[in-house]
Structures are given as structure tokens and as C-alpha cells.
Amino acid sequence: MGPARCVSGTISRITSSTLLRAGCLNLDFWTLGNEATIGYLRHAEIKHGRVAMAAFLGYLAQSTPVVSGPHAKLPYSGYEPGLTPPEQWDAIPLAGKIQIFGIIGMLESYGEILPQHYCNGGLPGYYPPIKGNRFELIFNLYDPFNWFDENKDKVRGRQVEINNGRLAMLGIFSIISESKVPGSVPLITGLIPEYKGDYMVLFRCRIEGKIYCSAVCTSSEAQPQPFFSSTPSITAFTFAQLI
Predict the structure, then answer these.
(1) Distance CA 168, CA 45 (A)
(2) Exposed/middle/buried for residue 164 (C-beta within 10 Å: 0-12, 13-18, 19+)
(3) Are 232 and 93 in contact (CB under 8 A)?
(4) How far is it, in rounded angstroms, from Cα 127 to Cα 137?
(5) How far is Cα 235 from Cα 93, in angstroms, rounded to an integer?
(6) Which of 96, 109, 192, 214 is the most exposed place for a label (fewest CB within 10 A)?
(7) Which H, E and C letters describe 133-177, residue by residue?
(8) How many whole angstroms from its chain centre is CA 50?
(9) Distance (Å, rounded) from C-alpha 56 to C-alpha 50?
């Protein structure tokens, strides 16, 4: 099917996968082939949507006093009460951030150990069960409490997840934009506090109300920072901000 035939139909009724299969884009990432590229792109979209949903809900949760504090017992070294979600990330010691990235890396690596890879005909978005692989792993990442009925329409459920993920991506980037440029998102103007840091510099740190680069964070000027410094709850919430 050539380009002329691709654009002659009703494009609004054709999904991205249909366009790829029809040869309109004919993408071939890393010489994997068109079908493998379709699986890769779909899996990437689903995964990014899930992270965006976690980020959006994480921002809302971190904006509440339950997380932002004040707390009678400091949850980690360098904690300050009343910080906004991105400021909370800046306040986490460097060692704590490395722990979070380490957990993410392990989960990513395990997610690639599949009976049938999504680039080779496997199901995009599938994450293998982890429950029982070690004695500490008592829940799966997907459906840890067995709330969902696997016999329902999986195709519709996956499409709902994709759409929710796309909306969440718009939501979290709207929040980020408004926090950096107040008034840039009229719908939420005045609801999101301004952030004077840099979202793209993940390893900056906050010491006594001031933001420093990672070099200062590890120098003698910084406060003592024990390696196991971030609590599981803070780790879970800040994981949602890494997008």
C-alpha cells in the first residue's frame, strides 16, 4: 500500500497500529522490523502512561499534609516541612535518590524477562508477576489484591488504560508547566505553587532552604546523610515524580 492510498481514506478512523501495519510509516527501529517496532512503541506508550498516572497522583498526594508534614519524626535527613512535591525531591539526600533509581532499574530489568517479548509477538504492557520470587515479595505490581476479573474484555481494558495514560501525561506536564511559568495553564492558574528549581536536574539537593548542585551535596558543606535515609513511603511517592 503506497502513501497515496494511505492518505485517501478516513484517517480519523484508522488507529496508529493500523497505519503502521499498512506500511504508511514503515518504521524499523534498530533493524527489528515493522512488527517489532509496533510492539516496542505500544509498550513504551503504555509504560509512559502508567508512570504519568503515578506521577499525577503522586503530585497530589505529596501536596497533602500527610506527606509534606510537619511530622513529629523526621522521615529522612534534610527533611523540611511544607515543601512542594518537587522541593521534596530536592530535599532527599543523594544516597536516597540513588536508592530510588536502583529500585527502578531492577524493576525495569525484571520487566524485560518475558516468556514472549513484546517485540516478538508478546503482549505490550505485560509485566511478569514478582510475588513469591523472594520472601519479601508478597504482592505483584499489577493487581496486588486480585481486584480485577481477568475474564472481562481485556481489549477494552487496555484501551481505557492507554487513554487514561495519555490524559495523565497531559495532566502532569500541565502541572509542571504551571509551576515553572505561572499562568501558562489557565485552568489551574493559582492552584500550583511556583517551583524555582530545575526539573531536568535530578541530583540537585536542598540544604537549609537553599538548592545546591550534586557536587555540594556530597561535600563537607552538606549535612550528614546516612545511606538508608529515605523511608519506603517517601520512596514510593518520589518514584512517581521521575518522569
Answers:
(1) 12
(2) middle
(3) no
(4) 15
(5) 12
(6) 109
(7) CCCCCCCCCCCCCCCCCCCCCHHHHHHHHHHHHHHHHHHHHHHHH
(8) 6
(9) 10
pLDDT tens digits, 131-165: 888 888 888 887 788 777 666 677 788 889 999 99
Whose cell is 488504560? That residue is 161
Write the DSSP symbol of residue 211.
E
| Angstrom distance (rounded) from CA 191 to CA 183 | 10
List all residues 6 or more positions away from 150 whose beta carbon is below 8 Å from its beta carbon.
none
Q: Which amino acid is at 136?
A: E
pLDDT in tens, 15-61: 555 544 544 566 677 777 888 888 999 999 999 999 999 999 999 99
- Extract the C-alpha cell encoding 243: 518522569
